[in-house]
Amino acid sequence: MNVPRDEPLVDDLVLGVWAVIALLGAARECDDAADLSGLVSKAEQILSAVIPHLAALALTGPSASMSGALH
What we know:
Radius of gyration: 14 Å
Largest sheet: none
Strand content: under 5%
Helix content: over 70%
Number of strands: 0
Shape: elongated
Number of helices: 2
């Protein structure tokens, strides 16, 4: 079944999740506490932007998600 979707938003969500995975991978290998804190903080910021959009998609489908790209 081919469900219409807000392609730019979905693309942003996928890229945001991918960025978080990359940041957490870098954090796992980080030896410096300050750098580790910065990587985790950036991952938290991205997740804070992505999660509301994912929740809207999960609850109501692609057309009812918040409009626009991630902030």
